[in-house]
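FW: tagging you since you asked about this chain on Friday. Here's the raw sequence from the shared folder, copied in full. Didn't touch anything.
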Amino acid sequence: MKKLIFICCIFLFSGCIFTYDPAIGELTIRNNSDEAVYVYKKCGKVNVLPSEPKLELFQLISLDEQDTNRDKLITPEYRINAYAYGAIDIGGTKKKPQLDCEEKVVTLFFISEQTMRNYSWEEISSKQMFIKKIILTDEELKNNDWNYVYNP
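HL: got it, structure written out here
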């Protein structure tokens, strides 16, 4: 009986010894506008919205490869609803995020949902149809606890 209790205690306490910190450091963005925005993240100081990789209005997830009726449309992580919070992957871990950019600078382009719905990505990037561009340094992100508030 004592051995059984001892073994149970070892199993219970072994989970407390190690702390798992997944490698998904995030930048939290608060959208203070009246409509959803799409956030395009690019490492470095970038002046022009790149054409690749392109953002999608929705993402299609196939639940069953044989049955296309089971496909599901989901909202991409880079879409942030009006007056809501969203998060984009930035690097590092959840407890200790860090920019995985060589220059320690990231550029964020904000694109309205209306633009995403009405134009192709090729038109958006070639005509530079973003509403706002912001350049953030690693130091600024750390000082703001990896949070950014988007105001139109």
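FW: The first helix runs from residue 2 to 17.
HL: agreed, and The beta strands are 26-31, 37-43, 59-61, 72-74, 79-80, 84-89, 105-112, 132-137, 147-150.
FW: great, closing this out.
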